[in-house]
Amino acid sequence: xxxxxxxxxxxxxxxxxxxxxxxxxxxxxxxxxxxxxxxxxxxxxxxxxxxxxxxxxxxxxxxxxxxxxxxxxxxxxxxxxxxxxxxxxxxxxxxxxxxxxxxxxxxxxxxxxxxxxxxxxxxxxxxxxxxxxxxxxxxxxxxxxxxxxxxxxxxxxxxxxxxxxxxxxxxxxxxxxxxxxxxxxxxxxxxxxxxxxxxxxxxxxxxxxxxxxxxxxxxxxxxxxxxxxxxxxxxxxxxxxxxxxxxxxxxxxxxxxxxxxxxxxxxxxxxxxxxxxxxxxxxxxxxxxxxxxxxxxxxxxxxxxxxxxxxxxxxxxxxxxxxxxxxxxxxxxxxxxxxxxxxxxxxxxxxxxxxxxxxxxx
Length: 362
Ligand SMILES: Nc1ncnc2c1ncn2[C@@H]1O[C@H](COP(=O)(O)OP(=O)(O)OP(=O)(O)O)[C@@H](O)[C@H]1O
Hints:
The structure is a single chain. The chain folds into two domains: 125 residues; 227 residues, Alpha-Beta Complex (Aminoglycoside 3'-phosphotransferase, Chain: A, domain 2). It has a six-stranded antiparallel sheet with strand order 1-2-3-4-6-5, sandwiched between helices. A hairpin with an 8-residue loop joins strand 3 and strand 4. Helix 4 packs parallel to helix 9, helix 6 packs across helix 11 and helix 7 packs across helix 12. The protein is built from 13 helices and eleven strands. Bound molecules: adenosine-5'-triphosphate (ATP).
């Protein structure tokens, strides 16, 4: 969003009251602190959520945060209804309140939650504002390998405490995209892919197009396989969902936090972040480091087991990006981004021999 088109809007009385109550309940404001004014500035209008930076004025200076990030259901009715039906808002709120405190992963601090729709579960999160000293990642540029490795380290911190943890696996609100039948996935994949073969995907090399064709036909079986140790899966761990600060990387956008194969986020992060040549040079070492760090964190896993699962996981980029491509139309940045990631994803699957693996297992 262009900064010069962004204007701040004063919050109405109902919003101020909701914020004050939520911050009090979240122990993020002094008891009985009074919020006197709030001003909302949009920072991101996503597919499913609207995000605002909120400046706050308290009756006693310092009684609560001066600034926060508010992420709430999108105003766009269709997207919001889809997200709500998928449990995306509740899931993100529950991740921040119930799971983030059990990990060392760097996510924004949660200040409070709001049940805006009155559906009996929170759908809005109030988060630590990191706009001043952090910059969002850029999906259109290659991530420097040192930064990628630090993001990967955060992934190890997310995964280790929940590794094969049966109580976490049973949490009904976690997103399940792997290891379960996904109704209509084949039709959605095919419809989406065929709608862009003459546009976004028109100039992809023939072997990449063929690879995507084959993957689309077997995506449901691929997702069902879901091999290897299971743990928490972010499901969209890529540059756009990372905030880079001095000496730290912060992971955001937890609407799709779920349960699945430990190699999924690893393959997706690498596949969406690195150019093909860089990935080829570094992926074995990144995998080795990832397993070594998990082991240091108490996880019982070996490099060769991880390599085996990586062959499957190398389709993660295609799995995540083929279904939404048909809805990417007019925005040139999104078109460029999707085309680039499709190509990277296909090349990653080809390099890993993922489709041959799939053929041999089915
Ligand atoms: N705590 C935060 N501090 C600073 N900026 C943030 C914070 N949270 C989100 N942002 C900014 O807002 C943008 C949108 O946030 P986020 O990725 O969580 O939602 P989204 O992508 O719009 O929604 P969706 O969940 O529908 O994909 C981010 O790209 C980031 O620039």
